[in-house]
Write a structure and sequence with these properties.
It is a single chain. The protein folds into two domains: 4-115, 2-Layer Sandwich (D-amino Acid Aminotransferase, Chain A, domain 1), CATH 3.30.470; 122-275, D-amino Acid Aminotransferase, Chain A, domain 2 (Alpha-Beta Barrel), CATH 3.20.10. The protein contains nine helices and 15 strands. It has helices at residues 24-28, 46-59, 71-81, 122-126, 148-152, 154-160, 201-210, 223-227, 260-279; strands at residues 4-7, 10-13, 31-39, 42-43, 87-94, 109-115, 128-134, 164-169, 172-173, 180-184, 189-192, 215-218, 231-236, 240-247, 250-251. The chain is globular and about 55 Å long. The two termini are 24 Å apart. It binds pyridoxal-5'-phosphate.
Length: 280
């Protein structure tokens, strides 16, 4: 079980880890986070996630508190005290306590450990359904803690029999609420939206791993092009590569997960393994 969290570098029993109520994350939804996996006791691709976390913080003008050591050391300490082997870690940087309820002063840094994500295996063998929604995330390069639209639409998703959203900006594909999106075009190009999306670490790795196998492109993708795609996937830290077989009432390809997704997933697993071996 997860016994400890870290607050501003201090290891704290999880049940006693608290923030004051005037934190801007509570009052205004101001803050950023990041999320990565721990495998064999090691944080996976930590360099990429810390780089993004630092970039998100800078874009919201939030200063990461100075700890006694590095942020990576604080993460390793939390892995150690919790005795984690397979788990996930969430870093959160809040706007901090604000006397006037509005102006950030000193951000609070939380490091939380969670169990390893548990995903329905049918989603990989049968594929999932997306519900399209016209929406552009605000300051899209920032992994902000604000998921107003995604969470508000959970009930609607369920009613439509869909598992995830597909955000598009007046017909240009963007991403899902917590994942990036890829299409394998009719002529065999693996494409993903270039702009106005969160730059996923999984997205980056998949683009690198796919390059020797297929032509890859980061560019604009229209909703119409999606409807002619052979395959569609979501990618994220939690999901890896997840096949999509339906978007609204449109069937993707032949309605079954395609052949490229499992190939990429296998390459991704092997690449992760190599990374972990080098970390020893
Ligand atoms: C976290 C997230 C992703 C996926 O990023 P990964 O680094 O692959 O986990 C994509 N879009 C949004 C909005 C996200 O919050």
């Amino acid at each position: 079980m997860i016994a400890y969290y870290s607050i501003n570098g201090k290891i704290t029993p999880a049940g006693q880890a608290t923030l004051r109520l005037n934190d801007l994350s509570i009052l205004r939804g101001y803050g950023i986070f990041d999320y990565f996996l721990v495998k064999a006791g090691k944080p996976v691709f930590i360099e990429d996630y810390l780089e993004r976390f630092t970039r998100s913080a800078a874009l919201l003008y939030l200063e990461i508190p100075q700890l006694s050591g590095s942020l990576e050391e604080a993460i390793e300490e939390l892995i150690l005290v919790n005795g984690l082997y397979e788990a996930s870690i969430r870093l959160v940087l809040t706007g901090g306590y604000a006397d006037d309820g509005y102006t950030p002063l000193r951000p609070n840094l939380l490091i939380m450990a969670h169990p390893y994500p548990d995903i329905n295996p049918l989603y990989y063998t049968d594929g999932i359904t997306l519900m399209s929604y016209d929406f552009q995330r605000e300051i899209p390069e920032v992994k902000s803690i604000n998921y107003l639209t995604g969470i508000r639409l959970l009930g609607e998703l369920r009613r439509q029999g869909a598992q995830e959203l597909l955000y598009h900006d007046r017909g240009l594909l963007r991403e899902s609420a917590r994942s990036n999106v890829f299409i394998l075009t009719a002529d065999g190009v693996l494409a993903t939206p270039a702009d106005k999306v969160l730059l996923g670490v999984t997205r980056k790795k998949i683009l690198e791993l796919a390059a020797p196998l297929v032509k890859t492109e980061e560019r604009d993708i229209t909703f119409e092009e999606l409807l002619t795609a052979k395959e569609v996937y979501l990618t994220s830290t939690t999901k890896g590569i997840m096949p999509v077989v339906k978007v609204d009432h449109h069937i993707v390809g032949n309605g079954r997960p395609g052949e490229l997704a499992p190939v990429l997933q296998d390459k991704f697993v092997a690449f992760t393994q190599t990374y972990l071996e080098q970390k020893k």
